[in-house]
Amino acid sequence: MKRFLIPFGVFVALVLFLGIGLKLNPREIPSPFIGKPAPAFNLTQLNDEAKSIAPTDMLGQVWLLNVWASWCVSCRQEHPVLMDLARLNVVPIVGLNYKDGRAEGVTQLQQFGNPYLMSAFDFNGRVGIEYGVYGVPETFVIDKRGVIRMKYIGPLTPEIISGKLLPLIKELNRA
Amino acid sequence: MLATQAQTVTSTAATDNALEKHVLAVSEQLRCLVCQNQTIADSHADLAVDLRNQVREKIQQGMSDQDIFDFMVARYGDFVMYRPPLHTTTWLLWFGPFLLLFGGLFFLVRKLRQRQPEQQELSESEQQRSAQLLNSDAEHPSQEKETT
């Protein structure tokens, strides 16, 4: 009986490790951006080609940078959540329209509502690469000094917003 | 005139070829974040194409391979390296298999050593009997010997 205990123990350990492995999300990649200044860019605004937009415009306030596109299905899923967040009026949301057409992006916002203070138009995805974007939607929380404090990959949910985002924003606003 | 034109064409083709090879070599070491088990050289994902273009541009700008890897790691983290870099946090990943190998060898050797004492020496009566058998064998040579 005893000699089966060791293989059995090894088996149990293996099952445990595999179980933990199943629970891990391979999409959650630690972002190297946390605590680093938000990469600079200067893009035109989605709604107005004549106006430009840069992260430095937002210095002095806590803000969100939300990467979205009209072709992105999970962004539609996220959209009502962003609308609710915008209605709360606690944090300005800046959009980064990623590899999209200007007309498509504008139409999308007209049709479903615009939660963004403004959206930057990143036609070729260059700025997306600067921000390490690999799965739209992505959301960055940026503090008053322009430092990235949090990155969330995938559609925001009401739980994430009330549980993580709002407390962080509150804390950053106090600082 | 035609000859020189042809020459410039072939020479740019040759440098293009070398450049593409270089791009491929660098791309093969970068992970596609969208399809995680592929490199950006293998993947047809939109992002992989963009990143390959970035690699090409950076090579043309004269950046070294290491500079390009640093650029990617600064944006996408260590995960973008197809061969995970050696850090204190990745020691287990790199040396774990060797740890298992040596652990296994250790147990195997220990088991084999334990097994040896089981080969007991012959008891006295057994020794006598073996001597008897050997002796009788000597007195009655085998048939093979007789035939030779």
Description:
- The complex is a heterodimer of chains A (175) and B (148).
- With 175 residues, chain A is of the alpha/beta class.
- Chain A has a single domain (31-174), classed as Glutaredoxin (3-Layer(aba) Sandwich).
- Chain A has helices at residues 2-23, 73-88, 102-112, 126-130, 158-174, and strands at 43-44, 52-53, 63-68, 93-98, 118-122, 138-142, 148-153.
- In chain A, the strands form two sheets. Chain A has a five-stranded mixed sheet.
- Chain B has 148 residues and is an all-alpha fold.
- Chain B folds into two domains: 2-85, Helicase, Ruva Protein, domain 3; 90-140, no CATH class.
- Chain B contains six helices and no strands.
- The chains are: A alpha/beta (175), B mainly alpha (148).
- The interface between A and B is medium-sized, with 15 and 15 residues.
List keywords for this structure.
heterodimer, A: 175 residues, alpha/beta, Glutaredoxin, 5-stranded mixed beta sheet, two-stranded antiparallel sheet, 7 strands, 41% helix, 18% strand, B: 148 residues, mainly alpha, Helicase, Ruva Protein, domain 3, 2 domains
The CATH top-level class label of chain A? Alpha Beta
Share in helix of chain B: 55-70%
Number of strands of chain B: 0
- Helix/strand-derived category of chain A reads alpha/beta
The gyration radius over C-alpha positions of chain B equals 35 Å
Task: Tell me the CATH topology of the largest domain in chain B.
Answer: Helicase, Ruva Protein, domain 3
How many beta-strand segments of chain A?
A: 7
Q: Major beta sheet of chain A, specifics?
A: 5 strands, mixed
Q: How many DSSP helices of chain A? A: 5
What's the architecture of chain A, going by CATH?
3-Layer(aba) Sandwich
Total separate domains of chain A: 1
CATH architecture of the largest domain in chain B: Orthogonal Bundle
Distance between the termini of chain B: 95 Å
- The share of residues in helices of chain A is 40-55%
CATH superfamily of chain A: Glutaredoxin
**Rg of Cα set of chain A:** 20 Å
